[in-house]
């Protein structure tokens, strides 16, 4: 059980994004082959590829948050010492968390509107709430990843404080 949780923590987004990329490649390959060799492309291929793309796009937000790869002003942050960087990142993560916690209820509302409408996709007749659940799942995962990053930065801030306290006690 513990190994599964650790694996999910480390590779959840990557796993689903790789599977999505493989499926999109195979499906689009089938579509191209069908269109140019057989003269007729399956109607479902473009739709499924679009939905996989939507899901992988939203999952990539969580992946980028986990890996700390986002648009940021690195030159500004780099002028601070290690503890200052960690404090700056704590503040930044706090604001990010507030934004995503604010967005979660809207994503839930968006998905629930699709559930209530009973809308299905035109070609595959997939319930649209499967697709519209992507923002909700993504925002929840991002909030979890931000909390993880927040605690990692807090640990860096506390390390410095603990080292300083030990040095003060020794004098």
UniProtKB/TrEMBL annotation:
Boundaries of every Tripartite ATP-independent periplasmic transporters DctQ component domain copy: 24-154
Keyword annotations of the record: Cell inner membrane, Cell membrane, Membrane, Transmembrane, Transmembrane helix, Transport
Gene Ontology cellular component annotations, sorted alphabetically: plasma membrane
Regions crossing the membrane: 12-33, 48-65, 86-108, 128-147
InterPro entries: DctQ, TRAP_DctQ
Keyword Zinc attributed: no
Keyword Cell membrane: yes
Pfam families according to UniProt: DctQ (PF04290)
Organism superkingdom: Bacteria
Topology in the lipid bilayer: Multi-pass membrane protein
Subcellular localization: Cell inner membrane
Assigned protein family: Belongs to the TRAP transporter small permease family.
Official protein name in the record: TRAP transporter small permease
Biological source species: Coprococcus comes
Lineage of the organism: Bacteria, Bacillati, Bacillota, Clostridia, Lachnospirales
